[in-house]
Amino acid sequence: MDIVPVTPQSLSIGQLANEYAASNVFNEYQDKMAENTLKRHKDDIALFSKFLKNIGMMKESLMSDCAEWQGITFGLVETFKRWQLDQGYAIASINAHLSTVKVYAKLAAKAGVLTAEEYARIRMVSGYRHKEGRNVDQKREVTRKEGAKKSEAVAISQEQAKGLKSQPDTPQGRRDALLMCLLLDHGLRCGEVAALTTQSINLPTGLLTFYRQKVDKEQTHKLTRDTLLAAMRYFEVAKPKDKLLMGSRKGGKLEGVMSERAITDRVREMGERIGVKGLSAHDCRHDWAKDAIKQTDIKSLQQAGGWSSSAMPLRYADDAAIANEGVKLSR
């Protein structure tokens, strides 16, 4: 076996390769991410940048330039966590923001910008467990910042769900009825609804076919009776070209397409109309899962909801009044 001698030239080539890999560590990681995850990371890091600016550190490219992580320390990340509490962010939001910061700190350490020792200390900054979060909330005045993620989903009664699916008999009302059926009867995420096309609903077969970006899977649902009727009524007055749900203008005229933001705003408006404040598309998904889990096995619900693990739908199960009521023994 021939031994290749180490030369200054080979050392410089290796060093250049390391520098190139380090400079691209963020891009390589972000290229693998789903669009919604990348958007959430941008929001989380923007909040971290805002915190740093408040204490006199200008870090405006933390998402794209790993060199910007020079000087980020355990103490700053720990203070960021406490700052969010004072700002009134929900515990779940604080944990999510902290998790994102630690992900990029890890990448910065991989690139050699942060030392292994400093990154190890940053990793030690932990979020709040459920019981800890509850104790913290009891001791602070503001437990939710306006516009931040809600700590709990908005509850929807059966009567309210019926009201949300019963919209005025206008083109806009028929579209809104279909929108609410897709959210309440099928548990689709906001982005999944916005991405539906005119080919997604097959009226003759009564099937809905759509793509779940979060788990990279195409699914087919059998339309519920309400959803099928709402779709039939919608297609009588709407002529969408590509995307299924058309946007609306003043006077209720359908035009263009309905974006995720438009869906979010519309769901909130329809909720307020029947006395449900702060309603979101995710609240409807939460309600769908909570209702379905009462009479659906976990595996079936996991598949229908597009979750990657059974732990996710289990979060929607209510504690039984008698803890062992559903337990069946063989003896």
Give short descriptive properties of this protein.
331 residues; mainly alpha; DNA polymerase, domain 1; hpI Integrase, Chain A; 3 strands
What would your notes on this structure say?
The protein is mainly alpha-helical and 331 residues long. The chain folds into 2 domains: 11-139, Orthogonal Bundle (DNA polymerase, domain 1), CATH 1.10.150; 158-309, Orthogonal Bundle (hpI Integrase, Chain A). Helix content is 52%, strand content 4%. Strands 1-2-3 form a 3-stranded antiparallel sheet, with no helix packed on it. The longest helix is centred in the N-terminal third of the chain and has 20 residues, at 35-54. It is globular, with a radius of gyration of 25 Å. The N and C termini lie far apart (68 Å).
Short description:
With 331 residues, the protein is mainly alpha-helical.
Indicate the low-confidence ranges by residue numbers. none
Strand order of the largest sheet: 1-2-3
Strand content: under 5%
CATH topology-level name of the largest domain: hpI Integrase, Chain A
Secondary-structure-derived class:
mainly alpha
